[in-house]
Hints:
The protein has about 270 residues and is an alpha/beta fold. It folds into two domains: about 160 residues, Rossmann fold; about 90 residues, ProC C-terminal domain-like fold (Orthogonal Bundle). It has an eight-stranded mixed sheet, sandwiched between helices. The longest helix has 23 residues. The radius of gyration is 21 Å and the shape is elongated. Bound molecules: NADPH dihydro-nicotinamide-adenine-dinucleotide phosphate and (2S)-3,4-dihydro-2H-pyrrole-2-carboxylic acid (A1CAB). It is found in: Cytoplasm.
Amino acid sequence: MTVVAVLGAGKIGELVLSGLLRAGWPADKLLVTTRRSTRGEELHERYGIRAVDNATAVAEADVLAIAVKPQDAGALLAEIGATVPAGKLIVSLCAGLPTSFFAARLPEGTPVVRVMTNTPALVDEAMTAISAGPHATGDHLAVAEEMFKPLGATIRVPESQQDAVTALSGSGPAYFYLLVEAMVDAGILLGLPRQVAHDLIVQTAIGSAVMLRDSGEHPVKLREAVTSPAGTTISAIRELENHGVRAALLAALEAARDRAREIAAQSA
Ligand SMILES: NC(=O)C1=CN([C@@H]2O[C@H](COP(=O)(O)OP(=O)(O)OC[C@H]3O[C@@H](n4cnc5c(N)ncnc54)[C@H](OP(=O)(O)O)[C@@H]3O)[C@@H](O)[C@H]2O)C=CC1
Ligand SMILES: O=C(O)[C@@H]1CCC=N1
């Protein structure tokens, strides 16, 4: 069975490892590397997986999943790049960094796959977009899918779309959490106890998300069904439109996409 090493197990690396274990990936087929040894020990105690150094991971794993911050990827590749044996699959989880960044720092012919996942991996509801980079074949994409399917949904996209994907689904959970936070505060403003406001909004978010996924209806239709003539909802929607929420979202996601491009330019 494929041995996967997660290089740089912070938040996302741990989510990937724990998801693979939940899906039945044997602990002895997983390796983890960390910068701080205490973090490696913590992950070993929590999951029973072996914490090793980057050189050992390169030597022993079939797949190297790079989960360091994009700003740390250059240093990591300077350390391991030349030692990566031919044919080892590199799966990058780094926002912004194109596969060419990795190819330039790895032996010629090394297959590179770029993925963008998100934190709902914690509850097996991630959205992961997968792209083939240099030398990545259908088989390599299938390996990446085998890794990420247990964590939620997967989709294949051309790499040219990955910065937009990052802006939408990679960063996306943060936008929903911000919205929930603001709506709970609105509940406080209206005099509800915080816990009651929290419970109302969280269940409303879950119900709305499940309807979006399962009803097959367009979001406009779902919204219209809530919006009664001369009712309460349209009064709120007028305020959202007056405050430019729609325009703010367009600008915000464009800014996230632009930041991904900037990270790539600064790392080149
Ligand atoms: N957070 C998110 O929602 C998402 C993040 N991503 C991407 O995932 C990647 C990781 O993000 P995230 O988990 O949030 O970041 P974290 O900072 O939580 O994790 C990165 C980890 O890499 C470790 N690290 C750095 N350099 C090395 C090295 N040379 N060898 C071994 N370990 C190293 C860091 O160690 P130390 O703790 O000592 O600094 C840290 O624990 C990023 O590239 C990000 O763009 C993608 C999708 C979503
Ligand atoms: O904020 C970030 O840069 C990372 C990438 C996508 C989500 N978090």
